[in-house]
Amino acid sequence: MLGPPGAGKGTQAERLAVQHGVPKISTGDILRRAVQAGTALGGSAKQAIDSGNLVGDDAVIGIVRERLACADAQAGFVLDGFPRTVIQATALDGVMAARGVLIVLDIVVPEDVLVQRLASRRICSACGANATADTRQACLKCGGPLVMRTDDGAGIVRERLKVYQRQTRPLVEYYAPRPTFRSIDGNQVPDAVTEAIDSAIASAVAAGGARQ
Predict the structure, then answer these.
(1) pTM of structure
(2) Distance between the two ends of the chain, CA-based, in angstroms?
(3) Residues 84, 167: contact at Cβ < 8 Å?
(4) 85 and 166 in contact (C-beta within 8 Å)?
(5) In the chain, what are the domain boundaries?
(6) Residue 52: pLDDT above 70?
(7) What is the crossing angle of helices 27-37 and 40-51, to 10°?
């Protein structure tokens, strides 16, 4: 699942994972848990996250490779937030070489809409879960208080979008030639985006691309 910050990747990835009975694997969630736990990885990740930069390729690749080796991911998975660089994408190709076809969905949203969305986004300060638009007082999962993410401040948002354009956007060029790549209009209500994703996946499966 590709797309800039605020495109709705997390929401759509969660829905897709539930629909297909596979785990949603979010590198952002893993890193934020590491930050909360105060681990060495969390310390280095916090510096990058707070400045709007990406965590190093080697660390993220190692996290994902380890997670994809878990038993619950053997029948399939939804990746949210990985890969974010071509180096990471190349590493994922290596992991997927013996596992089947990789479907790539790129959620596209205008920048002004992204900035507006990110400014209003909240997460749970206790468990890190993202809040939905209708739950602004407390977390639905644990009841914890909702706060703005440290990387959603106006200045950080602009920097994150610059980082995306510079480092992550080239992934579209990397994946676009593949028969299992699909672009999704993310400037719609979530349910409409979900329908578009379902149609895109059906189309990608029917295209039958070669193993990636």
Answers:
(1) 0.75
(2) 15
(3) yes
(4) no
(5) 9-204
(6) no
(7) 120
Dist CA 129 CA 125 (whole Å): 8
Residue 157 banded pLDDT, cuts 50, 70, 90? confident
Q: What are 3-39's pLDDT values in tens digits?
A: 988 899 988 999 999 999 999 998 877 777 777 777 7
On the question of pLDDT at 172 being above 60, the answer is yes
Known catalytic residues are: 9, 84, 121, 149, 160
Nearest-CA neighbor of 116 among 128, 134, 133? 133
Looking at residue 26, the DSSP 8-state letter turns out to be: E
Residue whose C-alpha is closest to residue 84's, from 182, 183, 160: 160
Q: What is the DSSP letter of 145?
A: B
Helix residue ranges, H only, the chain: 9-20, 27-37, 40-51, 57-68, 86-96, 111-120, 154-163, 170-175, 190-207
Task: Identify how many contiguous H helices and E strands the chain contains and give both numbers.
Answer: 9, 6
The matching CATH number, chosen from 3.60.150.10, 3.40.50.880, 3.40.250.10, 3.40.50.300, for 9-204 is: 3.40.50.300
Q: Which two tokens stand for residue 18?
A: 């539930």
Question: Nearest-5° angle of CA 194, CA 131, CA 113?
Answer: 60
